[in-house]
């Protein structure tokens, strides 16, 4: 994970790459919620000085992925039930509008793209790769979010996606992924049928099911 050698093109590039790698590590639960993020450990891990580490931690605090407290340092942020409620409320508002637009779109293209992500997830799961399966389902959401076509909303979506990916890694089991696949197939069927109401209903049911599972998995 070192940033030495040819990757050290400029100080700005180093700062950005440290931020991006640490962000992905937090999302992928390399650092569990509540785990301390010690500068000395991170400088050794990423092969950089303390300055880009400190700047990355501040940016990640703004993203809501890191908590920084005086005299205690930084740690990976944790979620409360209220946090999850806000995250899933925002997701439901955005994705329901997206899925309605997807279902109302002419032609089969969006339905085919959504189905391709679920097909890919099924193949990964059959091969025993849950992480790849979850990543394919993340792509399902990305296809939906493309329907926004609104730069301001897309900024909100990008921040929301970080938390959704991170929370989704907590309860990653064959059972949870299989259940999610079935729910995604129901959503796709409504999109392919050009049924906005049915697509929204299926999506709401899926999101609320996922929220309940995450609350249970996090023990909150």
What are the SSEs and their pairings?
Blueprint: H1 11-27, E1 36-37, H2 39-46, H3 50-63, E2 66-69, E3 73-76, H4 81-104, H5 109-126, H6 130-145, H7 151-168, H8 174-192, H9 196-218
Antiparallel strand pairs: 1-3, 2-3
Helix pairs in contact: 1-3, 4-7, 4-8, 4-9, 5-6, 5-8, 8-9
Distinctive features:
3-stranded antiparallel sheet; mainly alpha; Arc Repressor Mutant, subunit A; disordered N terminus; 5% strand; 3 strands; 71% helix; Four Helix Bundle (Hemerythrin (Met), subunit A); 2 domains; 220 residues; 9 helices
Q: What is the mean predicted local confidence, pLDDT?
A: 90
Distance between the termini: 33 Å
Percentage of residues in strands: under 5%
Number of strands: 3
Shape label = elongated
- Helix content, binned percent: over 70%
CATH topology-level name of the largest domain: Four Helix Bundle (Hemerythrin (Met), subunit A)
Q: Mind telling me the CATH class of the largest domain?
A: Mainly Alpha
How many whole angstroms does the radius of gyration measure? 19 Å
The helix count comes to 9
CATH superfamily of the largest domain: GntR ligand-binding domain-like
Which stretches are poorly predicted, pLDDT < 50 over at least 5 residues? 1-9
**What's the CATH architecture name of the largest domain?**
Up-down Bundle
Q: If strands are numbered along the chain, what order do they take across the biggest sheet?
A: 1-3-2
In N-to-C order, the SSE pattern is: HEHHEEHHHHHH
Number of domains: 2
Question: Could you describe the largest sheet, including whether it forms a barrel?
Answer: 3 strands, antiparallel
Structural class: mainly alpha
Keywords: DNA-binding, Transcription, Transcription regulation
InterPro entries: GntR_C, TF_FadR/GntR_C, Tscrpt_reg_HTH_GntR, WH-like_DNA-bd_sf, WH_DNA-bd_sf
Organism: Herbiconiux moechotypicola
Protein name: GntR family transcriptional regulator
């Amino acid at each position: 994970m070192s940033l030495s050698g040819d990757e050290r093109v400029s100080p700005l590039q180093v700062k950005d790459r440290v931020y991006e790698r640490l962000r992905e590590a937090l999302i992928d639960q390399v650092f569990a919620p509540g785990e301390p993020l010690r500068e000395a450990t991170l400088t050794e891990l990423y092969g950089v000085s303390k300055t880009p580490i400190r700047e990355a931690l501040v940016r990640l605090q703004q993203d809501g992925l890191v908590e920084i407290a005086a005299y205690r340092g930084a740690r990976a942020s944790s979620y409360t039930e209220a946090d999850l409620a806000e995250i899933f409320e925002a997701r439901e508002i955005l994705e329901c509008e997206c899925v309605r637009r997807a279902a109302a779109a002419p032609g089969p293209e969006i339905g085919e793209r959504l189905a391709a992500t679920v097909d890919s997830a099924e193949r990964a799961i059959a091969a025993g790769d849950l992480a790849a399966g979850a990543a394919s389902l993340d792509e399902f959401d990305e296809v939906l979010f493309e329907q926004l076509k609104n730069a301001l909303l897309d900024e909100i979506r990008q921040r929301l996606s970080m938390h959704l990916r991170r929370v989704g890694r907590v309860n990653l089991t064959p059972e949870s992924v299989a259940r999610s696949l079935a729910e995604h197939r129901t959503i796709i069927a409504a999109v392919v049928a050009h049924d906005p109401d049915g697509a929204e209903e299926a999506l709401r049911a899926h999101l609320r099911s996922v929220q309940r599972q995450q609350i249970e998995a996090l023990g909150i």
